[in-house]
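Quick one: structure tokens for this chain, please?
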Amino acid sequence: MTEPRILVVDDEDVVRDNVQWVMHHQGWSVDTASSEAEARDRLQSANYDAVIADMKMDRDASGIEILKLAKELSPAVEVIILTAYGNLQNAARAMELGAYSYVEKNVPNVDVYQILLLKVKQALEKKRLEEENRCLQARLINVERQATLGVLSSAIAHDVHNPLTGVLGYADLVLESIDENSPIYRDVLMIQEGALRCKEILRHILDFARPDEGETMPVDVQSSVDRIMVLLQRAAMQKKVDIACDFTATSTIVMASPNQVSQVIMNLIVNACQAMPDGGRVRIHTSNRNGSVILRLSDTGKGIPQESIARVFDPFFSTKSRGEGTGLGLYICKDIVTQLDGTIEVESEVGKGTTFTIALPTV
């Protein structure tokens, strides 16, 4: 959350100034108003996290009216009613209209400003938690949508597979029935090659969409990269992203589920492409070190701010714009790599790019 912004509405200069001083001491931005009209202007021209309003001011101005206006303009704002005329009826009315709390000014032997400060802190924390909850719910909905998309992708792949098999069968029959010098021979051959490519892509989609049953087996990391490249190469080209591989590892077999390795590679490549909306380069390099295969993936994207590096593997954390990701991709990578007794590290420089380095024990 950014620096909280508070509005203090009270017709008593001493009260208004004291409240402003206490709130400023917390490093918060504080505006004041001495009348209902001034408060209305403030509320209509700025967004506040909390409003402290006196229940009764000169010229019959009412904290209840300020409460109503504040909630009308910004339902999420927290309003605390401050009054010297405390009674249960006023308190009940304020709470009924959505006030966060109700504080009396003239209570003997009580520092009302410290009580008010505590109430504001509690209100801001409530607001922060509610905002986090809204973001979490939105991201969970996005996760559910992606899960549904996986199911739909699998169903579509199955449905397309059958007619595609027919296309391949008829292409084979035509090729067998015509001479290689026929003017249509090359055209039919291109149909066959295109259909075979589609079939290969469908196979990868089915493999990727199929739930991971946890069965481990020897998996070739470099072959997994090649398979994912079949799926992503064309999409990367459309985004003007050049992906190149440099395989120098001689030992690349790890014990894992094929889907686990594929998902890590897929997530990292997709993450890299999203970091380069105007195009760029992705380089994938493998090597061996201390009984492990090292997979290093580098991009020339916008980079990750240093203050965010420590959180990139946290669930639901994302540096992307809203709607561009769930914040789960790197968390899943970290979780899978950890399950495989490996490590994953990240290095990044803003404006230059990011490198992820994975080490997995070989067999």
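The CA atoms of residues 240 and 279 lie 4 Å apart.
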